[in-house]
Amino acid sequence: MSLKKIAVLISGGGTNLQAIIDAILEKKINADIKIVISNREDAYGLVRAQKHGIKNMFISSKNLTDEEYSKKLLEIFKQEEIDFVVLAGFLKILSKDLVMQYKNKIINIHPSLIPSFCGRGYYGIKVHEKAIEYGVKVSGATVHFVDETADTGPIIEQKAVDVDDFDSPNFLQQKVLEIEHEILVSSLEKLCNDELVVIGRRVIKRGGKDEKSIDKRL
Ligand code: GRF
Question: For residue 11, which atom of ligand 1 is closest to its CA?
Fold first, then answer.
């Protein structure tokens, strides 16, 4: 199977991007990162891309609406013949048009067990502050397809971590970040191997026992 061409969008440190780069180097993912795009010029993820000789660019969102920004992204995706897009800590909202043109081809990593602690305004350390404030006993991370609204697309993979009595938001963030790297790589591996089937809100493994029986359960 030929290598899938992927674009990775970032806004920050890029540890999720690094996990993807490392997995590709270890030949775990059937993909080639054609471009890394950041809406933040100071995103360390751009440095990570540079260190690995991966094409990367900062696209400022200054004086641009979300729609205008998405239009720029779309032009680049077409130019680079991108198959899949990974939002790895990307903090801008994509336009409906872009999401529709890349339906079930854009995935996002979120640092909670969706549908908890997600949606507009839930990003970064705030997610973990709210989880601890609420008193949950488990939190975790979610990889999902991106649809028209924030953090609501069909869920591909989730993994939980215990929230211990005296965890600080920062400590919980670090525990969750490790899980993020793990499930983002495994989700991208399945996506690039064409192993994911989306039926309604459910994402199932192609050819698995679920695929045959799913219609009986829906
Ligand atoms: C991660 O916590 C991710 O879940 C969230 O933004 C953070 C990005 O971290 N969307 P990094 O830039 O990949 O280190």
Answer: 12
Q: Whose CA is nearest to atom 1 of ligand 1?
A: 89
Q: Is the CB of 151 under 6 A from ligand 1?
A: no
Domains assigned to the chain:
4-192 (3.40.50.170)
Looking from the CA of 169 toward its CB, the CA atoms found within 13 Å total: 12
| Alpha-carbon gap, residue 8 to 148, rounded angstroms | 19
Report how far ligand 1's centroid is from the alpha carbon of 217 (Å): 35
How many whole angstroms from 4 Cα to the centroid of ligand 1? 23
pLDDT tens, position by position, 19-32: 999 999 999 999 99
Whole-number Å distance between alpha carbons of 204 and 110: 19
Judging by DSSP bridges, how do beta strands 84-87 and 4-10 pair with one another?
Answer: parallel
- pLDDT, one tens digit per residue, over 47-92 is 999 999 999 999 999 999 999 999 999 999 999 999 999 999 999 9
Q: Are 110 and 90 in contact (CB under 8 A)?
A: no
Provide DSSP, 163-216: --TT--HHHHHHHHHHHHHHHHHHHHHHHHTT-EEEETTEEEETTSHHHHHHHH
Q: Does pTM surpass 0.70? A: yes
Q: Is 52 a catalytic residue?
A: no
